[in-house]
Amino acid sequence: MVDDPNGVGVGPFGGAFVGAMSLGIDVADGRLRLTSVGASVRQDLVLISSDGTQVAWQQTSTRRGDAVEVELVRLDPDSERGMGRGALHFRNFLLWCEEAGIARVSLDAGKSIGGYFWARCGFLPDDASWRRLCRAWRQRAERSGIEDLLVLLDKATAAGPIGLVYITNSIFGKSLLLHAQWHGLLDLTNPEQRDRARHYGHPSHR
Predict the structure, then answer these.
(1) What is the pTM of this model?
(2) Over the stretch 19-63, which tens digit does the pLDDT of each residue have?
(3) Given Cys at both, which of 32, 66, 129, 180 links 125, Cβ 3.0 to 4.6 Å?
(4) Of 45, 130, 127, nearest in space to 88 by CA
(5) Annotated domain spans of the chain
């Protein structure tokens, strides 16, 4: 990564990155680069796989003080979904949050990347989203008649939004959350939520 006097960094593949802060991390199957600047944050992570394939993860966010709202996430090529790229991106995103002093991250899960992914990253739904999710899941469970699912939903619903952890870690988690849409919050000042995020972002989850 090199920076010109105007603050535009040129990435390893000739792409222009807006950036005054960069964090490069070497990993087993390639190299990633994270860059960001100012209130309007654009983060481009580019990975070269062992077979020479270029994989790009683009994230656009808005920063307000110590909070960030993620507005767009895109993986190119789309065929790379499910290959562990998301966990690798999230690991680097967490490192950037720590470097930048970010305390809270919000996003609309399921808008571009599925609700299951963001739930595994440690995000929790706000109250309105949680009530909506519980109603939809309850209807599905009652139609299916699966007793174990009904018991799980009773436990999760009673716990409030933190109950998403029970859902995510269950055998039903992926099917319930894969196409779910909800507004998610990640409070990095909350030790338990931060630890869950770090656990998913650990290299062993790739």
Answers:
(1) 0.73
(2) 223 344 433 334 444 455 555 555 555 555 556 555 566 667 777
(3) 129
(4) 45
(5) 1-103, 110-187
**123-151 confidence digits (pLDDT tens):** 999 999 999 999 999 999 999 999 999 99
CB atoms within 10 A of CB 186: 25
Tokens 């796989």 sit on residue: 49
CA distances from 83 to 26, 49, 105, 160 (A): 18, 11, 24, 32
Q: What does the block give as tokens for 155?
A: 């436990």
- Return the SS3 of 29: coil
Count CA atoms closer than 13 A to 13's CA, side-chain side.
14
Backbone torsions φ then ψ of 9, nearest 5 degrees: -90, 140
Name the token pair of 177: 């959350």
Please tell me whether residue 7 adopts helix, strand or coil conformation: coil
In this predicted structure, the answer to whether residue 188 has a pLDDT above a threshold of 70 is: yes
